[in-house]
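User: Structure please.
Assistant: Input sequence and predicted structure:
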Amino acid sequence: MTGNPDPEQERRSDMWSTSPPPPRPGPPTRWSATQHGPEAALAYRQRFLDLAAAGRDLHGEARFVTELAPPPSRVLDAGCGYGRVASELTRLGHYAVGVDADPDLVALAEEDRSTRFVVADLATLDLRTEQEFHVVVLAGNVVPFLADGTLAAVLERLTAHLTTGGHLVAGFSLEGSLPDGAAAVSPADYDRWARAAGLSFIGRFGGWDRSPFTPGSDYALSVHRRLGG
């Protein structure tokens, strides 16, 4: 990255306009085929609340982003779900915006009044006044749950929202460990589409704890960077 924003400058900026972007729905995602409606959104959130109650660490993604780009940085949580990552990023001092195509999940996310959440499709995303983020993060198996054939468009739209030198970070399960309804995406294919979107490969880990990625890894955490003007 090229540096963090000055807080006073951020407050004077209109970057965080509350005007919603115009709706531009893309094709139905694989997620929407398996999870939809208020009850499904509540059940999804409850699974994570149960994990937290059992002592599981739910904030590895936010810590990874913070190590990559210390606060206050502008971070877009793409496919934010009920806001788990975006809300933690806000708590850590970032300027976070969460985006998800599922309005029921976003309704739950909006219970956090300190973080901005938007209903929008990643394949057609255009936040207008929010054109530049220091980091875009795709967590929680967003990539394998995208609509079939839209990965290239999603990466192009997310890259368009990155500042020069900004990072795109994506973590997802690999073939053999995918949740029901998800489609396998190989690291090689992901890298190919990322390169086509104007991103340069930086590194890959086996998880948000920065464990090494090996041929036997069942999870890939990929870091790319936007170069050039």
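The longest helix spans residues 38-53.
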